[in-house]
Specification:
alpha/beta, Spore Coat Polysaccharide Biosynthesis Protein SpsA, Chain A, 2 domains, about 60% helix, membrane
Length: about 350
């Protein structure tokens, strides 16, 4: 077993974690200095003196790239070890790291996740961030996961080649890994661990806006595609009405053009990495979904507004959000599914 710790601008908590691990485990520790610079050389030198292997990036390249550097090192040196990845900020307890070690031995070819339960005092941005990524992952895969953002993870040695091929260099890498695992034939296994946040998680280098955008990028692309299609539908409705004076033709023409636009963008851009189906097989599915969405729109509006008695605005909002999420899931899992 190799314990891999990606690290950027660490403090003495990294050294504390190393000493605690040495007390409970004889497993080698591999640290990747992700371009921390000369100011942090003393900490990494101390880690070397403690018996750790330290690899160094000249510049900061991101957590995903640091992990891949560690995976590459293990792979290229012919080490047949399983790997446990832990963060360097002291928020993963040695006992929990050992739990992951044991779980990997029992669950081969699984991504073993150290899943925090988020009890006690949890920083607001961490609580919101984890809730959001849990929702996106469950919606994208149909499988709920307690902690999609955990940095404490374990991998079987057989998975190393695949781990080096997963896209992403920063925090999005770990989310991409979870999204790509099912089609690669790997399942997930969760092990409950302690929820530890030190100093309100101030040591985290996660950038809420930039890194969140990368984590949620597939869903954001779908939102943008749907938004542009809605604007196109709106504009064409008025243009066709002005040109032909027929509301029926204007509605049908605008919806047809915006649907073709939306289909093309979704197939070529939004789900480009997954779309293994041909246009001949995906077009009928897409437009069948479009028809179903129109029928469901009316049915749900009638249910919420007439039968349940929710005001029209609220009924429309619930309906649109529900159908938007349904459309994303159906296109991801059925229309543009990977081979």
């Amino acid at each position: 077993m190799t314990i891999l710790i990606p690290s950027y601008e660490p403090d003495q908590r990294l050294i504390g974690l190393i000493h605690k691990l040495k007390e409970v485990s004889g497993d080698p520790i591999l640290i990747v200095d992700d371009g921390s610079g000369d100011d942090y050389r003393g900490i990494f030198d101390t880690a070397k003196n403690a018996g750790c292997t330290v690899l160094t990036h000249r510049t900061n390249q991101g957590k995903g790239r640091a992990l891949k550097t560690g995976f590459d090192y293990v792979r290229e040196h012919g080490i047949k070890d399983d790997i446990v990845c832990a963060d360097s900020d002291g928020q993963h307890l040695p006992g929990d790291i050992l739990k992951i070690t044991e779980a990997i031995r029992r669950h081969r070819n699984h991504i073993v996740l150290g899943s925090r339960q988020f009890t006690g005092k949890v920083p607001l941005r961490s609580r919101i961030g984890n809730s959001a990524t849990r929702m996106v992952y469950a919606m994208a895969t149909g499988k709920p996961v307690q902690d999609t953002q955990t940095g404490l993870r374990g991998y079987s040695s057989e998975m190393l080649d695949w781990l080096c091929q997963v896209q992403g260099d920063r925090f999005e890498y770990e989310m991409n890994m979870l999204l790509e695992a099912p089609k690669a034939g790997y399942d997930l296994y969760e092990v409950p661990i302690e929820t530890v946040y030190l100093d309100d998680n101030k040591s985290s280098h996660f950038r809420p806006l930039a890194d969140s955008a990368k984590v949620y990028f597939p869903f954001l692309k779908f939102c943008a595609s749907s938004g542009f299609a809605a604007v196109l539908d709106f504009a064409l409705l008025f243009l066709l009405q002005w040109m032909f004076g027929s509301l029926f033709l204007s509605v049908i023409g605008a919806r047809l053009c915006s649907s073709i636009f939306n289909y093309t963008v979704n197939r070529k851009i939004v789900f480009a990495g997954r779309a293994q189906t041909t246009a001949r097989t995906s077009i009928p599915k897409y437009f069948s979904l479009a028809v179903a969405i129109v029928l469901l729109n009316y049915g749900l509006l009638h249910l919420f507004h007439v039968n349940v008695g929710i005001p029209l605005f609220g009924s429309k909002l619930i309906t649109e959000i529900s159908l938007f999420l349904l459309s994303f899931w159906v296109q991801l899992k059925l229309i543009f599914k990977s081979a």
